[in-house]
Amino acid sequence: MLKDSFNRIHDYLRISLTDKCNLHCSYCNPVTAALKHLPHAQLMTAPEIETIASTFVKLGVKKIRLTGGEPLVRKDAAEIIRRLSEFPVELAITTNGVFVHQFIDTFKQASLQSVNVSLDSLNKEKCATVAGRNVFDRVWKNTCLLLDNGFHVKVNMVVMKGVNTDEILDFVELTRDLPLHIRFIEFMPFTGNRWDSRQVISYKEILQIISEEYDFIKLKDELHDTSKKFMVPGFKGTFAVISTMSLPFCGDCNRLRLTADGKMKNCLFSKSESDLLGALRRGEDIEPVIRKCVWDKKEVQGGQILTAYKKLDGMELKNRSMIHIGG
Ligand code: SAM
User: What average pLDDT does the chain have?
Assistant: First the structure.
């Protein structure tokens, strides 16, 4: 079991398969990050991912989510999914959805149930502006394909003032006829993404906007949930808010992260990283490294965000870009 010094048990691992992405969302993949991709030799290979993941599973990890960068741009993504599907874990993926149609059979064979698709706008032009590519039609088609194939589909929308706030209601409206689970994510600061607290639309503000149009009810949050869930009675889907900035949920955090170059992070906002891949390649036992990294986890937001978000200067945080961490 992986316990930290605050008695939190960690059984959920997010593995980034690559720091590359086919899209260029400025909040995640800023120009400065795109210029600094990892050399191929520094990436974990498929067998290395399997070996590192097996140690986490031995230590009690029950859920693994693949992410990136865009996990599906990796040439051996299907092989990695197949390898990890052999473990007794719940396997999930977060993707921008562009290549999903090429992986439907792999997802099914791997018994992968939950797929998170990122989509920040339902407007083609705006979507192209945010993502740097005209991908709306493909992403939407693939979202429907996932639903048609019985996957549990969450749609992640990063809410940013002046960008897509006016579409919050349109996203809720989607849940009327589709069994989609919309997740409104508060905009978070990472290296290079020019975060400004004034662009954050908080949990309370999001609910206020929705309440002007819909009567909705609160759903029960499951243990370790990062999102607060709601639904409009009679609608097929649900919506939720991930309130990282205005109402952090570190108290029962169970998440650990592995970057594409095999560095373990005990929090999305942690400054420090533990080099599991280096240790593995030197033939060392990675278990003590993992245990120490978990034990050293800070109580709240990597020990970096100690003030209310409105007073935070994003430039002061020491971290990587989101695309280099793996969201
Ligand atoms: N490429 C995949 C995708 O687009 O979903 C996986 C990686 S992406 C880093 C994972 C999630 O992180 C996406 O839903 C994305 O919207 C979210 N994300 C990235 N940067 C963020 C930021 N600055 N604030 C909030 N969420 C962010």
Answer: 95
List, in order of start, the domains of the chain with CATH numbers.
Answer: 12-325 (3.20.20.70)
Instruction: Kindly list the distances between the CA atom of residue 160 and the CA atoms of 166, 199, 275, in Å, as whole numbers in the listed order.
Output: 10, 5, 34
326 secondary structure, DSSP code:
-
| pTM: predicted TM-score of the whole model, two decimal places | 0.96
Q: Take atom 7 of ligand 1 and give the residue whose Cα is closest.
A: 68
Whether ligand 1 lies within 6 angstroms of the CB of 201 is answered as: no
How far apart CA 190 and CA 304 sit, in angstroms, is 12
Q: Whose CA is nearest to atom 21 of ligand 1?
A: 28
Nearest CA to ligand 1 atom 8: 327
Residue whose CA is at the smallest distance from ligand 1 atom 15:
118
Tokens representing residue 20 in the block: 């590359």
Tell me how far the alpha carbon of residue 113 lies from the centroid of ligand 1, in angstroms.
Answer: 20
Q: Do residues 70 and 96 touch, judged by C-beta distance below 8 A?
A: yes
Report pLDDT digits (tens) over 140-175: 999 999 999 999 999 999 999 999 999 999 999 999
How many angstroms separate the alpha carbon of residue 323 from the centre of ligand 1? Answer: 8
Task: Specify the residue for token string 């067998």.
Answer: 47
Ligand 1 touching residue 188 (CB < 6 A) = yes
Which positions ≥6 away from 14 have C-beta within 8 Å?
64, 65, 66, 67, 255, 256, 257, 258, 326, 327
Query: Measured from the CB, is residue 93 less than 6 Å from ligand 1?
Result: no
H helix and E strand count, the chain: 11, 12
Report the run of H or E that residue 108 belongs to, with start and end: helix 104-109
Say how far apart CA 202 and CA 114 lie, in whole Å: 26
The three-state secondary structure class of 224 is: coil
Looking at residue 249, its pLDDT comes to 85
